[in-house]
User: Fold these one by one.
Assistant:
Number 1:
Amino acid sequence: MGMRAAIVVGATGLTGTSLVKQLCENDEYVSVTVIARRKPAFTHPKLEVKIRNFDTLEEKDIEFAHELYCCLGTTIKKAGSREVFEKVDFEYPLAIASLAKKRGIPHMLVITAMGANENSPLYYNHVKGKLEHDLMELGLQRLSIIRPSLLVGEREEFRLGEKAGEKVLKLAKPILVGPLKRSRAIEASQVAKAMIVIALHGKKQPVTIYQSQELAKLDFPETKDEDVSRENLFNWEKHKLSGSSDDGDKVNREVVINHDKYKIEETVVDKEVNFHRREDK
């Protein structure tokens, strides 16, 4: 069993709901904290829920954790205006990332979009790209950007446009090969699993961008069962030697988190991804 702690924001959405369940079921995590505006339906002994207003979120509301998972996101139709949309999809994630940096959280994983680009003529992709740019400028120790294509799964609310898109992409799947694979729809539960795989086994560089086709393939590494032969099982001398280790090797050891080791490094972007600094007008 591991000793990791996670914080999740955006836990009541399609991907966030699946992510929280998978984190609670993962043996590497002993604590999962959800910061939300409403209480999720899911409950678990590992799970702690903090009901907060994101407009007034403070540093004290975010405790130290190994990972901050951000699944915040809405649509312009649901938000009601571009102003509210930008608040949910841009302002809140950026503010939470800033608080997490102050708390010394070493890794943030954030969902943006497949076409995220701050120079995009499409408003949705422009906002997502602007978020990526400003998160990189923030100088987090480790930032993993998750760019899924159309997310599919059982939502609480019906979205006609996404249902239509899901059907079109399902029919088009056989011809979406090569570079077009990135456009295939992806299960939200797979994106959630991929985020945990990235947190536990992903690249350790300051900034990594994961495209949808890569997310679709990510899975936990296979674990090999320990070979317990009859000879090893009854080799008492071997067990005596293994039991004579120092106190640091004992199972019931005290775990101390060294906050000093989490130093902020200069942000580096993958070579194949180019971002341009936004000029304020």
Number 2:
Amino acid sequence: MSTPLVITVISADKSGLVESIAQVINRHGGNWLESRMARMAGQFAGILRVDIAAEKVEALRIDLDGLTSLGINVQVAVSGQADEPELEILHLTLLGNDRPGIVHEVSQVLARNGVNVEQLETECGPAPMSADVLFKARARLGIHPQTDLEALRQDLENLADDLMVELTQEE
């Protein structure tokens, strides 16, 4: 019987990181199913999903813990396959002037409207033709069929006069 794992990784960025992790997973017969990985501010962070035989989980965990000697910090969690309600997918794009607390404000609005954040990417960068810093966010959200999209849009737009909000439902 196979056991689904979710593994998180963080380390100072250096070449060979992914290979070190893949080598350990392969040595234990694990199947690397999906991952999201990125380099940010000199650090490398990732999350991946692996299937492995139940009797090999502990040995894999021990070997992954051994990667700390290489400066690679790994956390392993057994992934439950909980019965979750079917959620519709909504894509959110935000663009506006950056300010401290904007992610907190946006996440409060999403939580208040019962929205599940499935994927989130944010960045700040210079605005064209000015010295202002723009906040940009892209998110994949899970929403219940009864979610009032117009109320959600209004809540987000009320965060700031300059915040542009785009919501699109996945077909």
Number 3:
Amino acid sequence: MNTARLLDRTELPLQARQTVDDFEKQHATYFSHLVHFDPHLLESLHAPGALPDNVRVASSGDPAVIERMAEVTAVANLPEQRDADRGRYLRALLDIYGMLPVQARDRASLPETTVIAPEREGRILAESLGVLPRKRGWTPQAKRMPVAGGLLVGLDEWLPSRADRLVVVDGVVASGVTLMAILRLACEAGAEVEVFTCHSTRQGALALARYAEELEVSLTLHVGHVSGALNGKFYAVRPDAPDQVLLGDVGDTISPVASDVPPRGPRRDRA
């Protein structure tokens, strides 16, 4: 498998460079690093297969996770979202984190751990969970952009040094490319990485596991629920109803109510 390429923007075709410029203007940032996943690499990373043991799915032992996901999906597909809906959505996501058998906050508190929480949803959720430290934390913009049938990920910050122990908090894994780009940039070979997320497609979970192996990184993915499929725009949708998104844009949904975070439901006791 060929790994993703770290590109200089001068290498980009004119149309791809315009796409990068447009995304930078939209998000008021500058991408200091560009990681490219070509179509052949994406096809191999997303190929069908059984989930490996390092993908830990909470819903397989706790059906309450699926109930929370159903609430998230219901809000994501509303024709209009009010603040009460957004608060319900955010509360359901935080509940799912609380139902994971391993808690992100416990792992993030281990010595010499770097925490990464991409803008916006990763950073909002990590702050809500009390995971993001003042030191050894990274909250980059990590935006995926369509380029020539593949995906280009732009990141606007850089860790001062590569990490050998990493905790990543994000809301959802669809294609997995933003998190794979972060691993590509942030990890030493042999690093221990734990990713905490509410939901993943099967393709995204497989891609993360396969890419971590390619990078020689020890990965554990703690995920609330695995379901859905990627559509042509790499969004997670219902396979039987491709016009129905599973989560929608998490950052757009929760950011208006993030300053007044609703309380989480009861945290599941760990064995």
Number 4:
Amino acid sequence: MKKSGILNRHLAGALAELGHGDGVLICDVGMPIPPGPRIVDLAFRAGVPSFAQVLDGLLDELVVESATAAEEIREANPETARLLTGRLPRLSHVPHEALKALTVDARLVVRTGEARPYANVLLRCGVFF
């Protein structure tokens, strides 16, 4: 059995398949999930796992070239907005409807147990060299 890192076999496998430019949506339980991308649903119960836990775990595994969140997060969920700004210095913001439209191109969707407004971010994979 794997001792550390991401233990969920579906998530570990999906991350291994990602390449430069691929999109990864980390979302809360309320975000509409578009048809098409691979979905790894980690939600166990409300708040478990938290958005912050999933984000930190994925940032340990991925090189992130850019990130996009809904601009509404700043007012509706300032705690998560600060978390994203602190972890993702090149974070851009778009209206929530535009973020939902961008998720159509995501290759992977990771659903958290978070149930707070706009706890969603679209990451664009970079390369490690």
